[in-house]
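User: I'm curious whether this sequence folds into something compact or stays loose and floppy. Could you predict its structure so I can see for myself?
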Amino acid sequence: MHYIPNTVKEEKELLSACEADKFSDLVKIIPSEIKLDEDLGIGIPLSELDIEKELKNLSDQNKASSISFLGGGIYDHFIPRAIDFVSCRSEFYTAYTPYQAEVSQGTLQYLYEYQSMICELSGMEIANASLYDGASAVAEACILSCSFTKKNTVLYSSTLSKHFIEVLKTCLSGQKIELIKIPQKNGVTDLYFVEKYQKELSSIIIQSPNRYGIIESWKKAKYFLQNSSALLIAAGDPMSLSILKSPAKCGADIYVGEGQTLGNPMNFGGPLLGIIAVKEKYKRRIPGRLVGKTIDQNGQEGFVLTLQTREQHIRRDKATSNICTNQGLLALRATLYLSLMGKNGLPYVSQLCYQKSQYAAQEINKLSYYSIKYGNQFIKEFVVETKHNVNDLTQYCSDNGFLVQNIHESISNCFQIAVTEKRTKIEIDSFIRCLNDYK
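Assistant: Here's the prediction. I'll summarize afterward.
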Protein backbone atom coordinates (compact mmCIF):
# COMPACT_ATOMS: atom_id res chain seq x y z
CA MET A 1 0.00 0.00 0.00
CA HIS A 2 1.11 3.59 -0.63
CA TYR A 3 -0.14 4.95 2.66
CA ILE A 4 -0.86 3.10 5.94
CA PRO A 5 -2.18 5.42 8.71
CA ASN A 6 -2.25 4.45 12.38
CA THR A 7 -5.24 5.58 14.43
CA VAL A 8 -4.88 6.91 17.97
CA LYS A 9 -6.40 3.64 19.22
CA GLU A 10 -3.83 1.59 17.27
CA GLU A 11 -0.98 3.72 18.60
CA LYS A 12 -2.15 3.06 22.17
CA GLU A 13 -2.34 -0.67 21.47
CA LEU A 14 1.20 -0.64 20.07
CA LEU A 15 2.56 1.23 23.10
CA SER A 16 0.72 -1.12 25.44
CA ALA A 17 2.24 -4.16 23.71
CA CYS A 18 5.68 -2.56 24.13
CA GLU A 19 4.92 -1.80 27.80
CA ALA A 20 5.47 1.92 27.20
CA ASP A 21 3.34 4.92 28.19
CA LYS A 22 4.37 7.21 25.34
CA PHE A 23 6.50 7.21 22.21
CA SER A 24 9.42 8.99 23.88
CA ASP A 25 9.80 5.95 26.16
CA LEU A 26 10.71 3.86 23.12
CA VAL A 27 13.65 6.11 22.24
CA LYS A 28 14.90 7.04 25.69
CA ILE A 29 18.01 4.89 25.21
CA ILE A 30 19.18 7.37 22.55
CA PRO A 31 21.49 10.02 24.12
CA SER A 32 19.81 13.43 24.25
CA GLU A 33 22.77 15.18 22.60
CA ILE A 34 22.20 13.32 19.33
CA LYS A 35 18.40 13.68 19.28
CA LEU A 36 16.98 16.25 16.89
CA ASP A 37 14.52 18.45 18.76
CA GLU A 38 13.96 21.18 16.18
CA ASP A 39 11.14 21.26 13.67
CA LEU A 40 11.93 19.14 10.61
CA GLY A 41 9.92 21.43 8.36
CA ILE A 42 7.73 18.70 6.92
CA GLY A 43 4.50 20.39 7.96
CA ILE A 44 1.29 18.98 9.40
CA PRO A 45 0.05 15.44 8.71
CA LEU A 46 -1.76 15.07 5.37
CA SER A 47 -4.30 12.65 3.96
CA GLU A 48 -3.31 10.13 1.30
CA LEU A 49 -5.00 12.25 -1.38
CA ASP A 50 -3.17 15.41 -0.29
CA ILE A 51 0.16 13.59 -0.15
CA GLU A 52 -0.29 12.26 -3.68
CA LYS A 53 -1.08 15.78 -4.94
CA GLU A 54 1.98 17.20 -3.20
CA LEU A 55 4.27 14.52 -4.62
CA LYS A 56 2.79 15.06 -8.09
CA ASN A 57 3.50 18.82 -7.83
CA LEU A 58 7.09 18.07 -6.84
CA SER A 59 7.62 15.55 -9.65
CA ASP A 60 6.25 18.04 -12.20
CA GLN A 61 9.19 20.32 -11.38
CA ASN A 62 11.68 17.72 -12.65
CA LYS A 63 13.42 18.27 -15.96
CA ALA A 64 12.57 16.00 -18.86
CA SER A 65 14.61 12.82 -18.56
CA SER A 66 17.94 12.77 -20.37
CA ILE A 67 18.72 10.47 -23.28
CA SER A 68 21.29 7.92 -22.20
CA PHE A 69 24.37 7.11 -24.26
CA LEU A 70 26.03 5.68 -21.16
CA GLY A 71 27.78 2.30 -21.18
CA GLY A 72 30.81 0.91 -19.41
CA GLY A 73 29.10 -2.34 -18.43
CA ILE A 74 25.51 -1.21 -17.74
CA TYR A 75 23.30 -0.43 -20.72
CA ASP A 76 19.91 1.10 -21.49
CA HIS A 77 18.14 -1.74 -23.31
CA PHE A 78 14.42 -2.15 -23.90
CA ILE A 79 12.67 -4.36 -21.34
CA PRO A 80 9.32 -5.92 -22.34
CA ARG A 81 6.55 -5.21 -19.81
CA ALA A 82 5.84 -8.92 -19.48
CA ILE A 83 9.11 -9.25 -17.57
CA ASP A 84 8.03 -6.74 -14.91
CA PHE A 85 4.61 -8.37 -14.64
CA VAL A 86 5.83 -11.94 -14.17
CA SER A 87 8.85 -11.16 -11.98
CA CYS A 88 6.66 -9.08 -9.64
CA ARG A 89 4.33 -11.98 -8.89
CA SER A 90 4.52 -12.65 -5.14
CA GLU A 91 5.60 -16.28 -5.51
CA PHE A 92 8.77 -15.05 -7.24
CA TYR A 93 9.76 -11.81 -5.55
CA THR A 94 9.09 -13.12 -2.01
CA ALA A 95 10.79 -16.49 -2.61
CA TYR A 96 13.90 -17.37 -0.63
CA THR A 97 16.54 -20.06 -1.05
CA PRO A 98 14.89 -23.21 -2.48
CA TYR A 99 16.14 -25.56 0.23
CA GLN A 100 12.97 -27.66 0.15
CA ALA A 101 12.62 -28.90 -3.43
CA GLU A 102 9.06 -30.15 -2.89
CA VAL A 103 7.80 -26.60 -2.28
CA SER A 104 10.23 -24.78 -4.61
CA GLN A 105 9.61 -26.40 -8.00
CA GLY A 106 8.77 -23.12 -9.74
CA THR A 107 11.95 -21.40 -8.55
CA LEU A 108 14.10 -24.43 -9.30
CA GLN A 109 12.62 -24.83 -12.76
CA TYR A 110 13.27 -21.26 -13.87
CA LEU A 111 16.84 -21.45 -12.53
CA TYR A 112 17.32 -24.68 -14.49
CA GLU A 113 15.99 -22.95 -17.60
CA TYR A 114 18.29 -19.99 -16.92
CA GLN A 115 21.30 -22.30 -16.70
CA SER A 116 20.29 -24.06 -19.93
CA MET A 117 19.98 -20.77 -21.83
CA ILE A 118 23.33 -19.48 -20.58
CA CYS A 119 24.94 -22.75 -21.71
CA GLU A 120 23.36 -22.38 -25.14
CA LEU A 121 24.58 -18.79 -25.46
CA SER A 122 28.13 -19.47 -24.26
CA GLY A 123 28.54 -22.96 -25.72
CA MET A 124 29.62 -24.20 -22.30
CA GLU A 125 28.32 -27.39 -20.69
CA ILE A 126 27.62 -26.24 -17.11
CA ALA A 127 26.29 -22.93 -15.78
CA ASN A 128 25.43 -22.13 -12.19
CA ALA A 129 22.30 -20.46 -10.80
CA SER A 130 24.01 -17.01 -10.99
CA LEU A 131 26.41 -14.93 -8.90
CA TYR A 132 26.27 -11.40 -7.48
CA ASP A 133 27.53 -9.56 -10.58
CA GLY A 134 29.88 -9.86 -13.52
CA ALA A 135 32.82 -8.55 -11.50
CA SER A 136 32.51 -11.19 -8.76
CA ALA A 137 32.05 -13.84 -11.47
CA VAL A 138 35.47 -12.87 -12.87
CA ALA A 139 37.03 -13.23 -9.41
CA GLU A 140 35.35 -16.61 -8.87
CA ALA A 141 36.64 -17.81 -12.25
CA CYS A 142 40.20 -16.93 -11.19
CA ILE A 143 39.83 -18.84 -7.92
CA LEU A 144 38.49 -21.82 -9.90
CA SER A 145 41.43 -21.73 -12.31
CA CYS A 146 44.01 -21.59 -9.52
CA SER A 147 42.30 -24.46 -7.71
CA PHE A 148 42.25 -26.60 -10.84
CA THR A 149 45.76 -25.90 -12.16
CA LYS A 150 47.44 -25.65 -8.73
CA LYS A 151 49.16 -22.48 -9.94
CA ASN A 152 48.71 -18.97 -8.64
CA THR A 153 49.48 -16.49 -11.41
CA VAL A 154 46.61 -14.80 -13.26
CA LEU A 155 47.07 -12.49 -16.21
CA TYR A 156 44.26 -10.04 -16.90
CA SER A 157 43.96 -7.75 -19.87
CA SER A 158 44.19 -4.02 -19.27
CA THR A 159 41.14 -3.78 -21.55
CA LEU A 160 39.06 -5.58 -18.92
CA SER A 161 36.25 -3.47 -17.43
CA LYS A 162 37.67 -1.19 -14.75
CA HIS A 163 34.97 -2.35 -12.32
CA PHE A 164 35.94 -5.96 -12.97
CA ILE A 165 39.58 -5.11 -12.22
CA GLU A 166 38.74 -3.29 -8.99
CA VAL A 167 36.62 -6.16 -7.64
CA LEU A 168 39.15 -8.73 -8.88
CA LYS A 169 41.94 -7.09 -6.88
CA THR A 170 39.75 -6.85 -3.79
CA CYS A 171 38.47 -10.44 -3.87
CA LEU A 172 41.88 -11.98 -4.55
CA SER A 173 43.85 -9.79 -2.15
CA GLY A 174 43.98 -12.51 0.52
CA GLN A 175 44.15 -15.52 -1.78
CA LYS A 176 47.93 -15.63 -2.42
CA ILE A 177 47.20 -15.16 -6.11
CA GLU A 178 49.51 -12.99 -8.18
CA LEU A 179 47.67 -10.68 -10.56
CA ILE A 180 49.58 -9.33 -13.55
CA LYS A 181 48.19 -6.84 -16.06
CA ILE A 182 48.60 -7.50 -19.79
CA PRO A 183 49.26 -4.23 -21.66
CA GLN A 184 47.17 -3.11 -24.61
CA LYS A 185 47.95 -1.90 -28.11
CA ASN A 186 45.45 0.26 -29.96
CA GLY A 187 42.63 -0.70 -27.64
CA VAL A 188 43.13 -4.49 -27.67
CA THR A 189 45.17 -6.93 -25.56
CA ASP A 190 48.86 -7.36 -26.43
CA LEU A 191 48.85 -11.17 -26.30
CA TYR A 192 52.60 -11.50 -26.98
CA PHE A 193 53.05 -10.45 -23.36
CA VAL A 194 51.58 -13.83 -22.31
CA GLU A 195 54.49 -15.88 -23.69
CA LYS A 196 56.93 -15.19 -20.84
CA TYR A 197 54.48 -16.39 -18.16
CA GLN A 198 53.51 -19.76 -19.67
CA LYS A 199 54.93 -22.07 -16.96
CA GLU A 200 53.50 -20.60 -13.74
CA LEU A 201 50.24 -19.40 -15.30
CA SER A 202 46.83 -20.55 -14.03
CA SER A 203 44.66 -18.44 -16.35
CA ILE A 204 44.32 -15.36 -18.50
CA ILE A 205 41.24 -13.13 -18.67
CA ILE A 206 40.23 -11.60 -22.00
CA GLN A 207 37.08 -9.52 -22.41
CA SER A 208 35.24 -9.18 -25.72
CA PRO A 209 33.77 -6.71 -26.41
CA ASN A 210 36.27 -5.08 -24.08
CA ARG A 211 36.02 -1.98 -21.89
CA TYR A 212 36.25 0.21 -25.00
CA GLY A 213 33.61 -1.79 -26.86
CA ILE A 214 36.15 -3.37 -29.22
CA ILE A 215 35.78 -7.03 -30.22
CA GLU A 216 38.82 -9.10 -29.22
CA SER A 217 39.88 -12.59 -30.34
CA TRP A 218 39.40 -15.35 -27.75
CA LYS A 219 40.62 -17.81 -30.38
CA LYS A 220 43.92 -15.96 -30.73
CA ALA A 221 44.27 -15.83 -26.95
CA LYS A 222 43.81 -19.60 -26.76
CA TYR A 223 46.53 -20.03 -29.40
CA PHE A 224 49.01 -18.27 -27.09
CA LEU A 225 48.19 -20.85 -24.39
CA GLN A 226 48.79 -23.92 -26.58
CA ASN A 227 51.96 -24.81 -24.66
CA SER A 228 50.47 -24.09 -21.27
CA SER A 229 47.98 -25.74 -18.89
CA ALA A 230 46.50 -22.33 -18.13
CA LEU A 231 42.76 -21.77 -18.58
CA LEU A 232 41.22 -19.13 -20.79
CA ILE A 233 38.58 -17.05 -19.01
CA ALA A 234 36.39 -15.32 -21.59
CA ALA A 235 34.47 -12.30 -20.27
CA GLY A 236 31.82 -10.48 -22.23
CA ASP A 237 28.31 -9.10 -22.61
CA PRO A 238 25.98 -12.11 -23.01
CA MET A 239 23.83 -10.25 -25.53
CA SER A 240 26.81 -9.97 -27.90
CA LEU A 241 27.17 -13.76 -27.90
CA SER A 242 24.08 -13.96 -30.10
CA ILE A 243 26.08 -12.62 -33.06
CA LEU A 244 29.66 -13.58 -32.12
CA LYS A 245 31.26 -17.02 -32.14
CA SER A 246 30.68 -18.55 -28.72
CA PRO A 247 33.48 -18.60 -26.11
CA ALA A 248 33.44 -22.43 -26.14
CA LYS A 249 33.99 -22.55 -29.91
CA CYS A 250 36.89 -20.13 -29.49
CA GLY A 251 38.54 -22.48 -26.98
CA ALA A 252 37.60 -20.75 -23.73
CA ASP A 253 37.41 -22.87 -20.58
CA ILE A 254 35.25 -20.50 -18.55
CA TYR A 255 32.76 -17.83 -19.59
CA VAL A 256 31.83 -14.95 -17.28
CA GLY A 257 29.62 -11.97 -17.93
CA GLU A 258 27.34 -9.29 -16.59
CA GLY A 259 23.68 -10.21 -17.10
CA GLN A 260 22.19 -6.74 -16.63
CA THR A 261 21.62 -6.48 -20.38
CA LEU A 262 19.22 -9.44 -20.25
CA GLY A 263 15.99 -7.81 -19.11
CA ASN A 264 17.29 -5.91 -16.09
CA PRO A 265 17.12 -2.11 -15.72
CA MET A 266 20.14 0.13 -15.15
CA ASN A 267 18.95 0.87 -11.59
CA PHE A 268 21.61 3.55 -11.00
CA GLY A 269 24.29 0.83 -11.07
CA GLY A 270 22.74 -2.23 -9.42
CA PRO A 271 21.76 -4.80 -8.38
CA LEU A 272 23.42 -6.82 -11.10
CA LEU A 273 23.56 -10.42 -12.31
CA GLY A 274 26.77 -12.46 -12.40
CA ILE A 275 27.03 -15.17 -15.06
CA ILE A 276 29.52 -18.03 -14.98
CA ALA A 277 29.59 -21.13 -17.21
CA VAL A 278 32.30 -23.77 -17.56
CA LYS A 279 33.25 -26.91 -19.42
CA GLU A 280 32.07 -30.10 -17.73
CA LYS A 281 35.46 -31.09 -16.34
CA TYR A 282 35.36 -28.06 -14.02
CA LYS A 283 31.86 -28.73 -12.66
CA ARG A 284 33.06 -29.82 -9.21
CA ARG A 285 34.87 -26.53 -8.77
CA ILE A 286 32.18 -24.13 -9.97
CA PRO A 287 30.98 -21.79 -7.18
CA GLY A 288 27.47 -21.40 -5.82
CA ARG A 289 24.56 -23.64 -6.74
CA LEU A 290 23.64 -25.84 -9.66
CA VAL A 291 20.04 -26.86 -10.32
CA GLY A 292 19.42 -30.22 -11.96
CA LYS A 293 16.43 -32.06 -13.44
CA THR A 294 15.44 -35.55 -12.30
CA ILE A 295 12.54 -38.02 -12.24
CA ASP A 296 10.72 -38.75 -8.99
CA GLN A 297 9.40 -42.12 -7.80
CA ASN A 298 6.12 -41.49 -9.64
CA GLY A 299 7.87 -40.87 -12.95
CA GLN A 300 7.25 -37.11 -12.84
CA GLU A 301 9.83 -34.48 -13.78
CA GLY A 302 11.34 -32.68 -10.81
CA PHE A 303 14.01 -30.08 -10.15
CA VAL A 304 16.55 -30.15 -7.32
CA LEU A 305 19.69 -28.40 -6.11
CA THR A 306 22.24 -30.83 -7.51
CA LEU A 307 25.47 -29.21 -6.33
CA GLN A 308 25.92 -26.74 -3.48
CA THR A 309 29.65 -26.33 -3.10
CA ARG A 310 29.46 -23.35 -0.78
CA GLU A 311 30.78 -23.14 2.75
CA GLN A 312 27.31 -23.18 4.37
CA HIS A 313 26.58 -26.61 2.91
CA ILE A 314 29.88 -28.49 3.10
CA ARG A 315 33.05 -28.35 5.16
CA ARG A 316 34.58 -24.93 4.79
CA ASP A 317 37.96 -26.27 3.64
CA LYS A 318 36.16 -28.17 0.85
CA ALA A 319 34.06 -25.24 -0.35
CA THR A 320 34.82 -23.81 -3.79
CA SER A 321 33.76 -20.34 -2.69
CA ASN A 322 32.28 -18.35 0.17
CA ILE A 323 29.52 -17.13 -2.13
CA CYS A 324 26.40 -17.23 0.02
CA THR A 325 23.51 -16.73 -2.37
CA ASN A 326 22.60 -15.89 -5.94
CA GLN A 327 20.72 -13.20 -7.81
CA GLY A 328 17.57 -15.30 -8.23
CA LEU A 329 15.15 -12.51 -9.09
CA LEU A 330 17.49 -11.03 -11.70
CA ALA A 331 18.17 -14.49 -13.09
CA LEU A 332 14.39 -14.89 -13.42
CA ARG A 333 14.21 -11.65 -15.40
CA ALA A 334 17.06 -12.85 -17.63
CA THR A 335 15.20 -16.14 -18.18
CA LEU A 336 12.03 -14.28 -19.14
CA TYR A 337 13.95 -11.94 -21.44
CA LEU A 338 15.76 -14.75 -23.25
CA SER A 339 12.49 -16.69 -23.58
CA LEU A 340 10.68 -13.69 -25.05
CA MET A 341 13.51 -12.76 -27.42
CA GLY A 342 14.24 -16.30 -28.54
CA LYS A 343 16.86 -17.40 -31.05
CA ASN A 344 15.76 -14.81 -33.59
CA GLY A 345 14.97 -11.87 -31.33
CA LEU A 346 18.27 -11.67 -29.46
CA PRO A 347 20.46 -11.49 -32.60
CA TYR A 348 17.99 -8.97 -34.03
CA VAL A 349 18.43 -6.68 -31.00
CA SER A 350 22.23 -7.02 -31.23
CA GLN A 351 22.12 -6.20 -34.94
CA LEU A 352 20.07 -3.08 -34.21
CA CYS A 353 22.68 -2.00 -31.66
CA TYR A 354 25.43 -2.64 -34.20
CA GLN A 355 23.75 -0.73 -37.02
CA LYS A 356 22.82 2.26 -34.89
CA SER A 357 26.22 2.53 -33.21
CA GLN A 358 28.00 2.26 -36.56
CA TYR A 359 25.78 5.02 -37.96
CA ALA A 360 26.49 7.24 -34.94
CA ALA A 361 30.24 6.66 -35.25
CA GLN A 362 30.26 7.47 -38.97
CA GLU A 363 28.39 10.74 -38.41
CA ILE A 364 30.56 11.77 -35.45
CA ASN A 365 33.68 11.06 -37.51
CA LYS A 366 32.50 13.67 -40.01
CA LEU A 367 32.63 16.44 -37.38
CA SER A 368 35.65 18.73 -37.27
CA TYR A 369 36.70 18.26 -33.66
CA TYR A 370 35.97 14.54 -33.25
CA SER A 371 37.33 11.18 -34.42
CA ILE A 372 36.70 7.51 -33.58
CA LYS A 373 39.60 6.26 -31.45
CA TYR A 374 39.94 2.52 -32.16
CA GLY A 375 38.29 1.83 -35.52
CA ASN A 376 34.91 0.24 -36.20
CA GLN A 377 35.27 -3.27 -34.69
CA PHE A 378 32.51 -2.75 -32.12
CA ILE A 379 28.89 -3.78 -31.58
CA LYS A 380 27.31 -0.99 -29.54
CA GLU A 381 30.01 0.96 -27.73
CA PHE A 382 32.97 3.03 -28.90
CA VAL A 383 35.46 5.68 -27.86
CA VAL A 384 35.51 9.17 -29.35
CA GLU A 385 38.56 11.43 -29.29
CA THR A 386 37.99 15.16 -29.24
CA LYS A 387 40.00 18.40 -29.39
CA HIS A 388 37.65 19.92 -26.82
CA ASN A 389 38.02 19.76 -23.04
CA VAL A 390 36.26 16.49 -22.23
CA ASN A 391 34.95 17.52 -18.81
CA ASP A 392 33.38 20.68 -20.19
CA LEU A 393 32.00 18.82 -23.20
CA THR A 394 30.32 16.04 -21.21
CA GLN A 395 28.82 18.64 -18.86
CA TYR A 396 27.51 20.58 -21.88
CA CYS A 397 25.94 17.38 -23.24
CA SER A 398 24.33 16.67 -19.87
CA ASP A 399 22.93 20.22 -19.68
CA ASN A 400 21.39 19.65 -23.11
CA GLY A 401 19.81 16.30 -22.22
CA PHE A 402 22.43 13.76 -23.36
CA LEU A 403 24.36 11.52 -20.99
CA VAL A 404 27.81 10.35 -22.12
CA GLN A 405 30.69 8.76 -20.24
CA ASN A 406 33.97 10.51 -19.60
CA ILE A 407 37.02 8.21 -19.58
CA HIS A 408 38.99 9.06 -16.45
CA GLU A 409 42.24 7.26 -17.20
CA SER A 410 45.47 7.56 -19.15
CA ILE A 411 43.60 8.11 -22.43
CA SER A 412 43.24 11.88 -22.63
CA ASN A 413 40.56 13.89 -24.41
CA CYS A 414 38.27 10.90 -24.94
CA PHE A 415 34.72 9.99 -24.03
CA GLN A 416 32.71 6.82 -24.54
CA ILE A 417 29.32 6.28 -26.18
CA ALA A 418 26.97 3.31 -26.07
CA VAL A 419 24.14 3.11 -28.61
CA THR A 420 21.47 0.51 -27.89
CA GLU A 421 18.36 -0.50 -29.82
CA LYS A 422 16.36 2.08 -27.82
CA ARG A 423 18.10 5.03 -29.41
CA THR A 424 16.21 6.37 -32.41
CA LYS A 425 17.74 8.05 -35.45
CA ILE A 426 16.19 11.33 -34.30
CA GLU A 427 17.88 10.99 -30.89
CA ILE A 428 21.24 10.08 -32.45
CA ASP A 429 21.06 12.99 -34.91
CA SER A 430 20.09 15.39 -32.11
CA PHE A 431 23.06 14.22 -30.06
CA ILE A 432 25.42 14.69 -32.99
CA ARG A 433 24.11 18.24 -33.47
CA CYS A 434 24.75 18.86 -29.78
CA LEU A 435 28.38 17.76 -30.21
CA ASN A 436 28.75 19.92 -33.29
CA ASP A 437 27.21 22.98 -31.58
CA TYR A 438 29.67 22.89 -28.70
CA LYS A 439 32.32 25.55 -29.14
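Summary: The CA atoms of residues 114 and 335 lie 5 Å apart. The chain has two domains: 67-77+343-437, 81-338.
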